[in-house]
Amino acid sequence: MSLSTSTRSARFNLGFFGLRNAGKSSLMNAFSNQEISIVSPVKGTTTDPVFKTMEILPIGPVTLIDTPGLDDEGELGEMRIKRAKDILKRIDGAILVVDSEKGKGKEDEALLEQFRKLSIPYVIAYNKSDLANGKYDDGIMVSARTGEGVDELKRIVSTFEKEGNDKKIVSDLFPKKSVYILVTPIDDAAPKGRMILPQQQVIRDVLDSDSIAIVLKESELEEGIRKIGKENIAIVITDSQAFSYVSSVVPDDVLLTSFSILMARYKGFLQTAVKGARKIMDLKEGDEILMAEGCTHHRQCGDIGRDKIPNLIKKVTGKNFKYSFSSGVGYPEDMGNIKLVIHCGGCMLLEKEVQNRMKRTLESGIPFTNYGTMLAYLNGILKRSLELFPDIAALIDG
């Protein structure tokens, strides 16, 4: 996957951490062979995380993240440290940069414990090796100034296993040369001149499996099935917003699911999403529901999260609920009075980010589901959309 076609969720996200003046920014510049971050002998030069996406051999597409010092001071410093630690939820690997003349501090040790707790692969880079007298057994000696050890550091990082690298979205469920029909409505919510990311990802997954992807609008579905022949179709995958209509057109003996349900499976929370969707019927009048999105697209009339799902919920349940909203990397630390979280498919988020959000939500005793699963449940077709996964489909009647 090239840099131009990769999303943040598909790139390797690498964080640089350490105390002030350990040389994080200098080492990141040396690692990338570019002047990405401002370098200064003044402590605390990096005040906010700095993101830079680039191609680095032999790793491939990478987002490098420079973070504020873990020993920053004062009220503002505490806010900077929090931002640095928030990055832990969004990375695939970490480099802990330590001043080799001083060795690790208590903040470094605490961060290493967090790496281990969150199962983040890491390496300790003892910087300023050209000034140090000794060596360390638990890391690698490097020098941002001379370049010593930087190539070896890249080699070590390239061995970090990126979560989901070999995972498939749907192609692992069918043999090669299968025919997939992908229903992709083109409406006001569709990005101008392009398809939404889950649709792109499924198309690529199908093509990579040497299979056939037939992409059409819902208005062309009936004719498409007739021309292809239902016996030749492995599965129909639809955008969740067209679920109800597509279900009425696709014959009962043809498998049907949605992009959103496949993304929930891909991100590792489909079973939780199915359980969470059923909880909508248990909510009381006035209960609060959080609609959470991983992207920050412009909201407009007919938006799926702000209009379509809430309207359908009211129609099916007959109840009025309170709604709150989050988008992008923002997700509430304190869940307050929220009784249910309905999340987007998470295509723009790392699997680790989605899993972290789900875990925090469930630990607060709050059910967690996603847009597509909820839409399928409200339309009465969730069980059909889960025929691919009979063990999970059984949860609906359980």
How would you describe this structure to a colleague?
The protein is built from 14 helices and 14 strands. The protein starts with 11 loop residues before the first strand and ends in a 5-residue tail after the last helix. Strands 2-3-1-4-5-6 form a 6-stranded mixed beta sheet, with helices on both faces. It is an alpha/beta fold. The model is unreliable at 1-8 and 42-46 (pLDDT under 50). Strand 4, helix 3 (106-117) and strand 5 form a beta-alpha-beta unit.
- Average predicted confidence as pLDDT: 85
Indicate the multimeric state.
single chain
Uncertain segments of ≥5 residues (pLDDT<50)?
A: 1-8, 42-46
The proportion of residues forming helix, as a percent range, comes to 25-40%
- Adjacency order of strands in the biggest sheet: 2-3-1-4-5-6
The SSE string, one letter per element, is: EHEEHEHEEHEHEHEHEHHEHEEHEHHH
